[in-house]
Design brief:
By secondary structure, this protein is mostly beta strands. Among the domains are: 90 residues, Carboxypeptidase-like, regulatory domain (Immunoglobulin-like), CATH 2.60.40; 128 residues, Ferric Hydroxamate Uptake Protein, Chain A, domain 1 (Beta Complex), CATH 2.170.130. It has 10 helices and 63 strands. The longest helix has 18 residues. The radius of gyration is 33 Å and the shape is globular. The chain starts with a helix and ends with a strand. 40% of the residues are buried. About 2% of the residues have low confidence. It comes from Flavobacterium frigoris (strain PS1). It is found in: Cell outer membrane. This is Outer membrane protein. One of its GO terms (cellular component) is cell outer membrane. Keywords: Cell outer membrane, Membrane, TonB box, Transmembrane, Transmembrane beta strand, Transport.
Length: 996
């Protein structure tokens, strides 16, 4: 009977078993959030279902049977059914990416509806990189964006978008959640949702006087509909120095120095018995195994009426110089409350507390002679020999060991906004926003007395001649206040779509800074080396008669009206127009109002009928033209000069100082204007796997704000013109070979031709260090003499043009007679180097197989020069030698580049091509290997995603210059100067992130 029952049940259940079993799973997007409404079809069983609100599904299918998952806006995929719970991740389709929303000035728009060059970078691109400043992670990622990084903890990168457009400032405008800012070092990379780079006139004109240098828009995270999401990530990295400059060791130094003295008519150095060490000063001050620790926690939650996001972060970064530490604590809050379908309010707040490091560098370590040991036999610091740099540089260990902990530098910054948004009638939206930015930097420092041993006199003396301790204080506060009133009209009627924006903006800036110092009383007790005494009122140790103080303060305001219209017809014909009128308190009344505008158009050929069977998915031809503004200047209120001391007069027995204007008043000054235009196209093909963008751009700055020195007069005026033009190319290939294997390849290249068309009057030039800015040449060009070789004999000297530049002979540089007049004079100086690259480029590739992924980024520049400003070739003090000096000229035929060793004449130290080095390089910018765990549940916690990764940054650099790195930022007219100061280290880190 029992066998009969079993047989009967088997007969009943067999068809059900043969037809399939219940397959359960969840469909997620790339962020790990469930996708509701996705359709799942069992290809053989002919059953189907769709996902619920959280992305869950169940379907009757056989194990191993193909399941087809589709959803509007996502790539359709097919996977094999599994009896265990399935987790399926869908990717956004390429065509949907063109319809993605990008942030633009004072709003957002579909990327497809724009006519300009806006590049969107997802927040995840910068979230897991070991950089204190988010923009540092964008190096090599965006065409037209130049990022020059520094290895110094906390130092802001040098950022330039489409070239150097002014002689006053290169930094772009940052806009964080609608708030204007001068930098984003206060933003935690983990709190960023996206970064948009605005480069063209149609997207920049809406920013008026702030748009000339480009704009970087940052959107921080907000809560997303669905369940609460908690993300935790942490990483720890180790720094190491590569590409250390090569300098002489003790044996080589002695050989070169003695030869130099003999050549100059002096006997060999007489104190080698006192200085007989062989010290590697770079090794002495290097912090080997410097650590970078970064930990972040973020929480996002949203309901129908409230979206909340919280973020917390802690960063601790050691420098590659000992006792150099950066600490940052950050927080981010975004909350939006929906009162009704027509009204919502929101607040946002970012805050930071930073402990800033002391700015030491390797300059003294490169220059210090190696024959001195760091300490004498009694453990006292050794002073460098008086004749070998002792008067110019001290023992490199002293500032690192003794002065790093006697400086306290803190930063507190709070940036917040509140806003309200009301929908009016049917198609209007009115938004009011108020924001504030308070940046407080304060610090105290102590100058101790430090004993050093002078071997020549066998005496212990005071470091740097200090006989008194002292303390100093500073406190600088910058406050910005911003108001925005925006009315937006958005209407679709038939095939037409129109978005119109009208608004009013005011921006006020305030700075107050005060600083002071005081020394100990002569004959009194030293000020204690204890932070609680490091104040100006350090009674009873401080001598109030030595107390000095300084202050700086300024404020300015800008009010603006703005308009923008976005129109498209059938999604094929697109026109954008922008207008802004800015009024600035820093300009004279008659010229303080200026207008800026742009017009852009695009044609989406890919939607035309004649392109239907072409295989091209998208082909958009675009162009824009406009005028932008640049309000940045070396001084505030340039038309109102301050007073400075002039000649004094004696009245009776009283000496009365006189004060005169610092420069002549000019009452018709206005801001610089940048006329910009571009044209190009965007293409996607091969089923959206291949994309390609090409753009030609041209930016011409007119009416430069130039400070002129002419005879006995100094004044500001609007004069001069700078042009930047070139091409930008970007391409990518994304392919999913199978459910487990996918890969992508992308690259970008930017060409740049910078030229100063005029400065002031014909022949007027601006000099800054080794650079000259003059008409017909790139801005900040290196300027000096061209070295043709070295005089090999007196016969060579006699057969060459006579030089009037100083005393010279065999073994010295042979400068070129550029003008051909038969004599070497100052008129033979010429442009000998361009600090601006001919082109920059970046390349990225990623491969994903099952749960493993590998990503590699390369980045480089080509065609620029670097000015070497270290190595005993640019200073008259006697420092250590570059090891290249081993190949110096010692007789006919021994060298035609490295001159003889001699300090008797400064002939070989004139600015020349000897100091110019090739700045081209290619760098393995980033390599990351990751293991992505499948979603799972543990202890009633569902982990949506989990990743373990290894990351290597700046892994290797192929370069040609002799310094630590070929990268060097600077001012608009003096950059790419290698002072040998700080390397860009390799950072190898391991990290972990989880979302649940």
């Amino acid at each position: 009977m029992r066998n009969f029952i079993f047989s009967f049940l088997a007969l009943i259940l067999l068809p059900a078993y043969m037809s399939g079993q219940v397959i359960k799973g969840k469909v997620l997007d790339k962020e790990g959030l469930g996708i509701p409404g996705a359709i799942i079809i069992a290809l053989n069983s002919n059953t189907n279902t769709d996902t619920d609100f959280d992305g869950n599904f169940s379907i009757n299918a056989k194990s191993g049977e193909g399941l087809k998952i589709s959803m509007i806006g996502f790539e359709t995929l097919t996977v094999g059914a599994k009896s265990t719970p399935m987790v399926i991740t869908m990717q956004v389709s390429k065509s949907m990416q063109l319809d993605e929303i990008v942030v633009i000035g004072y709003g957002s728009a579909k990327k497809r509806d724009l006519t300009g060059s806006i590049v969107k970078i997802e927040g995840k691109t910068v979230a897991d990189k070991p950089n204190a400043n988010p923009v540092a992670s964008l190096q090599g990622k965006v065409a037209g964006l130049s990022v020059v990084n520094s290895g110094r903890p906390g130092q802001e990168p040098d950022i330039r978008i489409r070239g150097t457009v002014s002689r006053n400032q290169t930094k772009p405008l940052y806009v964080v959640d609608g708030i204007f800012s001068t930098d984003i070092s206060y933003i935690n990379s983990n709190d960023i949702e996206s970064i948009e780079i605005l480069k063209d006139p149609s997207s920049l004109a809406i920013f008026g006087v702030r748009g000339a240098n480009g704009v970087i828009l940052v959107s921080t995270k907000q809560g997303k509909a669905g369940k609460m999401s908690i993300n935790f990530n942490t990483s720890t990295g180790v720094k190491s120095i590569v590409g250390t400059p090569k300098v002489a060791n003790a044996a080589l130094f002695k050989q070169l120095y003695d030869e130099q003295r003999v050549n100059d008519g002096a006997p060999p150095y007489a104190y080698y018995n006192l200085f007989n060490s062989d010290t590697d000063w770079i090794n002495q001050i290097e912090n080997k195994g410097a650590i970078v620790q970064n930990t972040n926690l973020s929480i996002q939650s949203a309901t129908d009426n409230n979206k909340l996001s919280l973020g917390f972060g802690f960063l601790k970064e050691e420098g590659v110089i000992r006792n150099e530490n950066l600490q940052k604590i950050t927080f981010n809050v975004n909350d939006e409350v929906k009162v009704s379908d027509k009204l919502k309010f929101g607040i946002g707040l970012n805050g930071i507390k930073s402990k800033l490091p002391v700015g030491n560098n390797f300059g003294s370590a490169l220059n210090a002679t190696p024959i001195v040991s760091p300490y004498n036999a009694d453990g006292v610091y050794n002073q460098l020999p008086v004749q070998i740099g002792g008067a110019q540089i001290g023992n490199p260990l002293i500032p690192v060991n003794e002065e790093s902990d006697t400086n306290i530098n803190n930063q507190y910054r709070f940036v917040g906004n509140v806003y309200g948004e009301l929908k009016l009638l049917k198609d209007f939206t009115f938004r009011i926003g108020y924001s504030g930015d308070m940046d407080i930097r304060k610090g105290r420092s102590y100058v101790p007395l430090i004993d050093v041993f002078a071997a020549e006199s066998n005496q212990v003396t005071s470091y740097s001649g200090r006989t008194l301790t002292s303390v100093s204080q500073y406190n600088t506060t910058v406050q910005n206040f911003q108001q925005d009133y925006l009315l937006t009209y958005n209407k679709k009627f038939g095939d037409h779509s129109l978005t119109f924006l009208a608004g009013y903006n005011s921006f006020q800036e305030y700075l107050e800074s005060i600083s002071g110092s005081v020394k100990q009383k002569i004959g009194g007790e030293p000020i204690p080396n204890d932070p609680r005494w490091w104040y100006l009122n350090v009674f009873p140790y401080g001598d109030q008669a030595t107390r000095v103080s300084n202050s700086e303060q300024w404020e300015r305001a800008t009010t603006s009206t703005l308009f923008r219209a976005l129109y498209n017809y059938k999604g094929k014909y697109i026109v954008n127009g922008s207008f802004r009128r800015d009024s600035s308190s820093e300009l004279p009344k008659d010229t303080r109002d200026q207008n800026f505008w742009s017009i852009g158009a695009a044609w989406e050929l890919g939607k035309e009928k004649f392109m239907e069977n072409s295989g091209i998915n998208t082909l958009k031809i675009k162009g824009s033209y406009g005028e932008l503004g640049n309000q940045y200047n070396a001084v505030h209120y340039p038309y109102l000069p301050n007073y400075t001391t002039g000649a004094s007069a004696v009245f009776g027995s009283t000496l009365v100082p006189a004060f005169v204007l610092a420069y002549r008043n000019t009452d018709n000054l206005k801001w610089e204007t940048v006329t910009s235009y571009e044209g190009g196209f965007e293409l996607t093909t091969f089923k959206d796997r291949l994309s390609f963008d090409a753009t030609y751009y041209n930016k011409t700055t007119k009416d430069l704000l130039v400070f002129v020195t002419q005879g006995n007069e100094n004044f500001y005026t609007n004069a001069g013109e700078i042009e930047n033009k070139g091409f930008e190319f970007s391409t990518s290939w994304d392919d999913k070979v199978s459910d487990k294997f996918s890969y992508s390849i992308s690259g970008n290249l930017t060409t740049l031709n910078n030229k100063v068309n005029s400065v002031f009057e014909p022949g007027y030039e601006i000099f800054s260090g080794p650079t000259r800015t003059s008409a017909g040449n790139p801005i900040g060009s290196f300027y000096g003499y061209e070295v043709e070789g070295i005089y090999q004999s007196y016969a060579d000297v006699l057969s060459s043009p006579v030089s009037t530049l100083g005393s010279y002979g065999p073994g010295d540089f042979k400068y070129k007679d550029v003008n051909g007049d038969g004599t070497i004079t100052t008129d033979d100086r010429k442009v000998i180097g361009n600090p601006t690259p001919d082109f920059t480029y970046g390349f990225s590739t990623s491969v994903s197989y099952d749960k493993f992924s590998l990503a590699i980024d390369l980045q480089g520049v080509y065609g620029n020069e670097v000015w070497r400003n270290w190595g005993n070739g640019s200073t008259f003090a006697q420092f250590n030698y570059r090891d290249a000096r081993e190949d110096r000229w010692t007789g006919a035929g021994t060298s035609n580049w490295e001159p003889r060793l001699s300090e008797a004449s400064g002939y070989n130290k004139l600015n020349s091509t000897y100091n110019v080095e090739d700045g081209s390089y290619i760098r393995i910018r980033n390599v990351q290997l990751a293991y992505n765990f499948k979603p799972f549940s543990a202890q009633n916690i569902t982990f949506q995603s989990m990743k373990l990764f290894l990351n290597a940054q700046n892994l290797h650099t192929w370069k040609h210059n002799s310094g630590f790195t070929p990268e060097a930022g600077g001012s608009p007219i003096e950059f790419s100067i290698d002072n040998g100061g700080y390397p860009l280290p390799v950072i190898t880190s391991i990290g972990f992130s989880a979302t649940f």
